[in-house]
Amino acid sequence: MCQVGHLDPSGHQRVLMKTGLILLIIGHLNFITGAFIHGTVLRFVVNPRDAVSLQYAVANAASVISALLTISCGIAALVLSRCLAPATLKWAVFALSASSSLGCLSCLLGLAVSIGLTLGSQGRALLAPCTIADVALAPVSRECPFDPTRVYSSTLSLWAISLLLDLMEIIFGIRCLLLTLDLLRLGRCCGRAHQRKVSLRADPVENPDPGQCLGLLRLDSVETARL
Q1: Which has the closest alpha carbon to 73: 22, 29, 30?
Q2: More confident position, 150 or 157
Q3: Given Cys at both, which of 24, 33, 185, 200 links 74, Cβ 3.0 to 4.6 Å?
Q4: Residue 132 CB burial class (10 angstroms; 0-12, 13-18, ≥19)
Q5: What is the per-residue burial (b if ≥16 Cβ within 10 Å, else e) of 185-196?
Q6: pLDDT digits (tens, 9 = 90+) for 21-57
Q7: Residue 137 DSSP symbol
Q8: If you count DSSP H runs as helices and E runs as strands, how many of each does the chain have, helices first?
């Protein structure tokens, strides 16, 4: 049996299934977190004229898109764990895991910049929709679409959770990428072994010609008569 990386095909199936399931769960959690941040805070904050709030929206949208890529990669990995034969599916998982890892890396950097900007400005971009001067009176006022006394800490906490989920997506995405590379090498190894077996079976043993055998027998009989 062909083996690559100390794993046989059955071992690859188990590890790939666990990795795909983890990617599926993490992707859903990150998608829910990004959607919650957008629905509770960013949809009130985003202003095309404000570079900081626009950066918030772009980083959060990229996080949601990377979560969708991670979910797709997890589903494809689960399907591949059930059937390791199709080469097209292997290349699809390879492309999805690579794009998911790169997307999550960019989201990780974007969220880190968002957290740094928020800490540096003390959340002024988050509180921009609140036109009331006294923040303590804002929760009971209609001039603020959310509670500004909690939006600062809540948004930072949700961004930290999303940052952690992006890091986990990168780790397991790279793991899925390496497993798919092993499967592609395994397929090539088994394909070469199968070709060798077929070539050995296809090469027949050269059988002597009956005419040549008959000529040799006549020559032996003549030499025996002379003796």
Answers
A1: 22
A2: 157
A3: 24
A4: middle
A5: ebbeeeeeeeee
A6: 999 999 999 999 988 888 877 777 777 777 888 888 8
A7: G
A8: 6, 0
Token pair 């591949």: residue? 80
Residue 7 dihedral angles phi and psi, to the nearest 5°: -130, 130
pLDDT digits (tens, 9 = 90+) for 105-124: 999 999 999 888 888 877 77
% of residues, the chain, pLDDT over 90: 31
Contact of 42 with 96, CB cutoff 8 Å: no
d(CA 121, CA 144): 19
pTM of the model: 0.71
Give the whole-angstrom CA distance, residue 151 versus residue 141.
15
Which pair of structure tokens corresponds to residue 167?
Answer: 């890091």
Query: What three-state secondary structure class fits 177?
Result: helix
Tokens of 8: 């046989």
d(CA 9, CA 138): 61
Helix, coil or strand: residue 150: helix
Q: Are 114 and 66 in contact (CB under 8 A)?
A: no
- The two three-digit tokens of residue 110, written as one number: 């974007």
Burial class for 61, CB neighbours closer than 10 Å (0-12, 13-18, 19+): middle
Choose among 20, 19, 31: nearest CA to 162. 31
